[in-house]
């Protein structure tokens, strides 16, 4: 079943490559409980099929990097990009996209979280296995307030669309 507006985010873990060691976060991949990260925060989450793929690299991530200040001005605390890749790839892609410190590049290495959301997709015919659908959502204190799932192409999950929805 696909997550809906009004639903609480499912329990699960995402990984993030940490560039600088801090108290509680070691250098390299760190695992985070989604429910703990989302507690008390307004978060924009966008999911996409894969790191370094054409639309994801040319439009989706750059749009959120470019609009980060505008989203934060609307009360957004954090922006997450979730993709079915490992934390090393997500960290490298984040550096390549100049997203470090702007968008949290969250790895869903085995697609477990994408499946829990009901937003997984079978990309086997492209040799990519199980991936994430392309989507965006606004989450407040762990509850989905907006959900935009692409049916084809890249139209409803952009940063600009999310800014419109934030008013």
Automatic annotation (TrEMBL):
Give GO terms for biological process.
cell redox homeostasis; cellular response to oxidative stress; hydrogen peroxide catabolic process
Q: What is its EC number?
A: 1.11.1.27
* Single Gene Ontology MF annotation: thioredoxin peroxidase activity
Active site: which residues?
56
**Where does the record place the Thioredoxin domain?**
3-167
Keywords of this protein's UniProt record, alphabetized?
Answer: Antioxidant, Oxidoreductase, Peroxidase, Redox-active center
The record's top EC class is oxidoreductase
In terms of PANTHER family, this protein maps to: PEROXIREDOXIN, PEROXIREDOXIN-5, MITOCHONDRIAL
State the name under which the record lists this protein: Glutathione-dependent peroxiredoxin
Q: Which organism is it from?
A: Massilia yuzhufengensis
Q: What is the lineage of its organism?
A: Bacteria, Pseudomonadati, Pseudomonadota, Betaproteobacteria, Burkholderiales
């Amino acid at each position: 079943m696909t997550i809906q507006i009004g639903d609480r985010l499912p329990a699960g873990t995402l990984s993030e490559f940490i560039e600088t060691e801090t108290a509680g976060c070691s250098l390299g991949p760190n695992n985070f409980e989604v429910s703990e990260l989302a507690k008390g925060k307004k978060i924009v989450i966008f999911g996409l099929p894969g790191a370094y793929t054409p639309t994801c690299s040319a439009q989706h991530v750059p749009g959120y990097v470019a609009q980060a200040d505008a989203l934060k001005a609307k009360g957004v605390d954090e922006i997450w990009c979730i993709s079915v890749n490992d934390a090393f790839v997500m960290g490298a892609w984040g550096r390549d996209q100049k997203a470090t410190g702007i968008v949290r590049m969250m790895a869903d290495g085995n697609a477990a979280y994408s499946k829990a959301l009901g937003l997984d997709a079978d990309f086997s015919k492209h040799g990519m296995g199980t991936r994430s659908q392309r989507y965006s959502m606004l989450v407040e204190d762990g509850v989905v307030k907006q959900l935009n799932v692409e049916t084809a192409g890249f139209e409803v999950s952009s940063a600009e669309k999310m800014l419109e929805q934030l008013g």
